């Protein structure tokens, strides 16, 4: 099979096939019935798993348990693999946790990224402006106005 057709089949793998594999059906059996090469199926499964892991940012309690696991002697590599984070990210959290006084350990593990009104891209007047504009132009949509 050419690389172009392999790439096409890789992108068009039915999510139901991935679910079957996740439920325990064997990759070789699915490969035979679907006609998709095993290597393509394994790559797709890896991609899906990596995406799922990267979507979820660990909570403060997850970060706290990471620190406890390290204190108990678990390796940084195994902690990072388990939670799907990079070593530099772990060490950044660990430094904050280690430098914080005992009563502020949980606070040190909170996300420091700005969001909402505190984000640098936030324009407080934009919300009111958009609502006012749309009330004066009822046929307008955000998509149609963005294309203008």
**Biggest sheet layout:** none
Q: What is the percentage of strand-forming residues?
A: under 5%
Determine Rg (CA atoms, Å).
23 Å
Helix content: 55-70%
Q: What would the principal axes of the Cα set say about the shape? A: flat
Order of helices and strands: HHHHHHHHHH
Low-confidence stretches: 1-9
Would you give an account of this structure?
It is a single chain. It is flat, with a radius of gyration of 23 Å. The longest helix is centred in the N-terminal third of the chain and has 18 residues, at 38-55. Among the domains are: 3-55; 60-108. The chain has helices at 3-11, 15-22, 27-34, 38-55, 60-71, 76-83, 87-99, 105-108, 124-136, 142-147. It is an all-alpha fold.
SSE diagram, text form:
Elements: H1 3-11, H2 15-22, H3 27-34, H4 38-55, H5 60-71, H6 76-83, H7 87-99, H8 105-108, H9 124-136, H10 142-147
Helix pairs in contact: 1-4
Task: Please sum up the structure shown.
The chain has about 150 residues and is mostly helical. The protein contains 10 helices and no strands.
